[in-house]
Automatic annotation (TrEMBL):
Gene3D superfamilies: 3.30.70.920
Superkingdom of origin organism: Bacteria
Name used for this protein in its record: Lrp/AsnC ligand binding domain-containing protein
Source taxonomy: Bacteria, Bacillati, Actinomycetota, Actinomycetes, Catenulisporales
All copies of domain Transcription regulator AsnC/Lrp ligand binding, residue ranges: 2-59
Length: 73
């Protein structure tokens, strides 16, 4: 898990990686241009890390991001 987390953190599209307890061991915030880039990231960047399960969540609009004021302020 440590090696996968460090490899993810070194990727230019990854803006944060955290270790978790529960059904998932790692969570990564990834900013990509489109679904094609997401597919490429999963296929070519995650697969070699021996990651066995991936859940994706597409964010349509962020209300607040770390280090930024809430949207609309």
């Amino acid at each position: 898990m440590d090696a996968a987390g460090r490899a993810l953190a070194a990727h230019p599209a990854v803006h944060g990686v955290i270790a978790l307890t529960g059904p998932a061991n790692l969570s990564a915030a990834v900013w990509l241009r489109d679904l094609e880039d997401l597919h490429t990231f999963i296929t070519w960047d995650l697969a070699p890390l021996s990651i066995t399960s991936i859940d994706t969540v597409l964010v349509g609009r962020a209300v607040k991001r770390p280090g930024h004021a809430p949207a609309g302020q």
